[in-house]
Amino acid sequence: MQYTSSLVLAFAAAASAATIKVSVGQNGLTYTPNDITANAGDSVEFDFFPKNHTVTQSSFADPCHPLAGGFFSGFVPTKATTLGSTFTIVVKDTKPVWIYCSQTEGDHCQKGMVAAINAPKTGNTLAAFTLLAKNATTSTFPPPGTPIGGTLVKSSGNTTSSSTGTASSSGSMASSTGSTQFTGAAAGLSANMAGMGALALGALAMV
Ligand SMILES: *[C@@H]1O[C@H](CO)[C@@H](O)[C@H](O)[C@H]1NC(C)=O
Ligand SMILES: *[C@@H]1O[C@H](CO)[C@@H](O)[C@H](O)[C@H]1NC(C)=O
Ligand SMILES: *[C@@H]1O[C@H](CO)[C@@H](O)[C@H](O)[C@H]1NC(C)=O
């Protein structure tokens, strides 16, 4: 079997990149950990716990509302007996990435269900973001449908199904328009990286 050079590069990146696991809703309205440090190329795997949460990217200045071109897991209803659904993003660079739960029933974001990847230690900190979120208007989220900007693996107990979304609803790895969605400076995800990561994982599975 022959590998293309990009696949070999993706393989090398995946082999050295870490996967950081974050629990969603395991200890109440929280992401654990919520102050995440990651290197470019690392994956962040969000593991869903009851009851019905999302992983949604916002800007720092506008918590509880989606960032254009940002990632969105969709709602992941989770029963106590059906753990195992995950949403995984690949970190593009070390710029801060701001995250919230879009659930409006119970105002999860306003109640502090927020997280950050590579938040500054001073100035725009996670604590400052959390305070802004408390004052935010009712949460909004992208239209439901396929996940955006990451890979969702939905578990319903015994079976799992996987779907991968790019940050453009019409985008794919081959799409020339897909990357134009990544104009937000805070968008910490590359659709191509996500796709390459998936390929690299496939390659790992073959060896
Ligand atoms: C999950 O929450 C969303 C948003 O509130 C809602 O539309 C959806 O019906 C919920 N799903 C379940 C299974 O409760
Ligand atoms: C939140 O709103 C309160 C009351 O209006 C205000 O005093 C406070 O400064 C606001 N906090 C932030 C972080 O905007
Ligand atoms: C799923 O697993 C549980 C526990 O092993 C079993 O009782 C149940 O019948 C399974 N459901 C399906 C649809 O296979």
TrEMBL record:
Start-end of Low complexity biased regions: 149-174
Source taxon at top rank: Eukaryota
Signal peptide per UniProt: 1-17
KW Signal (keyword) present: yes
Residue span of region Disordered: 140-174
Gene3D superfamilies linked to this entry: Cupredoxins - blue copper proteins
CDD domains: Cupredoxin
Alphabetic keyword roster: Signal
InterPro entries in the cross-refs: Cupredoxin, Ser-rich/MCO-related
Protein's name in the database: Putative GPI-anchored cupredoxin
Organism: Lachnellula cervina
Organism placement in taxonomy: Eukaryota, Fungi, Dikarya, Ascomycota, Pezizomycotina
